[in-house]
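Trying the structure run again after the queue cleared.
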Amino acid sequence: ITDEDNENPLRCPLTGKVLQAVARHLKIISYRWLTACLNQQRYVDEIPTYEIIGDTVYNEHSGMSRSRLNNSIDYRLLANYAFHLKCT
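Done. Tokens:
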């Protein structure tokens, strides 16, 4: 959950925490979602109304949702490597 730009809705600054969430393929949503859930006293679907779709620098790019939805590629750092440890 992050703050959004007042002039450009559903866009947020690229902070370290936002970049960590993108790297972990998490949903990045506006704080307005939490307010809506509390006001309605139930879980409100966060997509597409509250999911962040861009940032304040590059505007709208949907990189956050693409990171989360593109499961066909294995992004783990050492995914294609095997290790053999030889101990004496």
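The chain has a mean pLDDT of 81. Worth checking whether this holds up in the mutant runs.
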